[in-house]
Design goal:
The chain has 243 residues and is of the alpha+beta class. It has three domains: 32 residues; 92 residues, Protein of unknown function (DUF541), domain 1 (Translation Initiation Factor IF3); 113 residues, Protein of unknown function (DUF541), domain 2 (Alpha-Beta Plaits), CATH 3.30.70. 37% of the residues lie in helices and 37% in strands. It contains four helices and ten strands, in the order H-E-E-H-E-E-E-H-E-E-H-E-E-E. Strands 2, 3, 4, 5, 6 and 7 form a six-stranded antiparallel sheet that branches. Strands 1, 8, 9 and 10 form a four-stranded antiparallel sheet that branches. 14% of the residues are buried.
Length: 243
């Protein structure tokens, strides 16, 4: 009786093990019956917002006189920009930075022998933010005309932005998703199957580079601000079941 019971137990164990093994292979086959594809979306656009920065400074032994000279330059800059068509609400003059400048006298051993006060240096930064991109861009190139008015304006390279980036991104995601699905359908068709349900979707890094530039993509994303004309890229990775 004991031998008979052992035989039954062994038989049941074999049946259960066979079922589990067969079910494991079945599930394994289901997992492998899938396809992953990557689709891309690309859009070229022209920036609709420009940010241009500049600075100007004055040096004088008398602080009050230095501030008066700086204030005079500010008025000249405002008048010049207004004449060029830049609106007053597009100008931002930041707080004046005041620094004391010193001249150092050294001895034969290179040690400081004497410190001489060389005057106050007052610097003010200017920022222009405008949707009139072409106008401000031209002004940034012609601003050396202020030299004739006795104003030395240090001009920086303009930065270009796009205010409708969110809408553009949605449009690109739609295009990239459609591209990925088309690729998946063609692969499934060529393999003799049909595309099943979507199992997973992942969005890649959003990149903005200068149009027709040689800029390299970055893992953390690239955001070009130096070019007026830009190209945006995005990727979408989809995973589908195969029927």
């Amino acid at each position: 009786m004991k031998n008979y019971l052992n035989t039954i137990i062994i038989a049941l164990a074999v049946v259960i093990a066979g079922y589990l093994l067969a079910n494991g292979y079945k599930n394994r086959a289901k997992v492998s019956e899938s396809i992953s594809v990557t689709g891309a979306g690309e859009e070229s656009f022209t920036s609709d917002l420009i940010v241009w920065r500049a600075s100007f400074s004055k040096r004088n032994m008398d602080l009050k006189a230095a501030y008066a000279e700086l204030n005079s330059d500010q008025k000249a800059i405002k008048a010049y920009l207004s004449k060029k068509g830049v609106k007053a609400d597009e100008l931002i003059f930041e707080a004046v930075d005041i620094q004391k400048d010193f001249f150092y006298e050294y001895d034969a051993n290179g040690q400081i022998r004497n410190t001489v006060f060389n005057g106050y240096v007052l610097t003010q930064n200017l920022k222009i933010q405008s949707k009139n991109v072409d106008l401000v861009e031209n002004v940034s190139r012609e601003v050396t005309e202020l030299i004739d008015a006795g104003v030395e304006l240090n001009s920086f390279t303009p930065e270009y932005y796009y205010t409708k980036l969110a809408q553009l991104k949605v449009k690109m995601i739609e295009a990239a998703t459609k591209d990925a699905k088309n690729r998946a359908e063609k692969i499934a068709l060529n393999a003799g199957g049909e595309l099943g349900g979507l199992k997973n979707a992942e969005m890649g890094v959003f990149q903005i580079t200068g149009e027709n530039s040689s800029e390299q993509f970055s893992w953390g994303g690239n955001f070009n601000t130096s070019s007026k004309k830009k190209t945006a890229n995005i990727t979408i990775r989809l995973k589908y079941e195969i029927d």
